[in-house]
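dumping the sequnces here before i forget
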Amino acid sequence: MNLTPAPVAAIASHLNPVHIEAGNRTLAEMQDLASSLTFASLLTDDGFEIVHLNGTHADGGRFASMSSSVQALSDAVAHELKIGTNEYVIIASELGHVIQLRVQGHPIVLAALFDTHETLGKGLSIARIAARRMAELIA
Amino acid sequence: MSEHVVLFAGPMGSGKTTAIRSLSEIAVVSTEATNTDRETADKETTTVALDYGEITIDDVTKVRLYGVPGQKRFDFMWSILAGRARGLLLLINNDAPDSVALLLEYLNDFRELHARGAVVIGVTKSDVSETPSVADYSAALTAASPDQLIPVFTVDPRNAEEMRTLLLTLVASVEMRELLAPAPTPISENI
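..and the predicted 3d for all of it:
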């Protein structure tokens, strides 16, 4: 499978002050929408963390690498099964849900961990709003 | 039909994805992302989870080819995939800074697989950098593991025939190790 690489920004997102500022703002607004958000990260497609929220909960760098792998594997499965573009990934566990999706038009992934006080539907809705917001801020 | 699982490992830019594409009989499953780390390797994309391909050799042996990401921050994928492999094809790009030390470092990272399976080394990009030589790598490997003979080849990952030679050497080593492994004790002797 050959994925068409997304365009590379002049400065990689994890080193780009504009993207870092936009990311911090996006995640802060996301936190305002959901108190059940226990951790969130914006990362490059190749697994570099741009920013994260609530860093005491997880190793941000490792979470970014794992989210990148999960995103790529999910994309590969969708491609292999010819079911179109992978829109989002959900990992539902006993004590929390991880929801991740791409920031449209950019090689950036939003990954968020909600505790179980949030329904998957609401978590997904908030994650989509945040991904759109990030895209607007760096457009 | 017998099956083997082999792992392609090595630094970013050493040619793992290319090697699997050269060998595989099926469409390779790749997980590539836009590479933002152009200082480490100047290429457009990089593997972030795995590559997967398959090849049948001598009509009766299927080899499953798994490639791992080269960057250490993806080492959780190394552990996941190394657990199912019996052979390691370690590629090292000759133009990497201190490539001999880098080879030993990667070999140490996969020491558990090395201890129970077989290893073959492929030195890539020797057209870009003529040194170190194969002899330099062999000497370092012998010094690090005096009791083990690890074959070292120069190879172009784009060349299917060259890659096939490496793979056949690895599969032969895996099968040899399996033959030489002590037979399991019959249950009746344990009663």
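Chain B has a mean pLDDT of 93.
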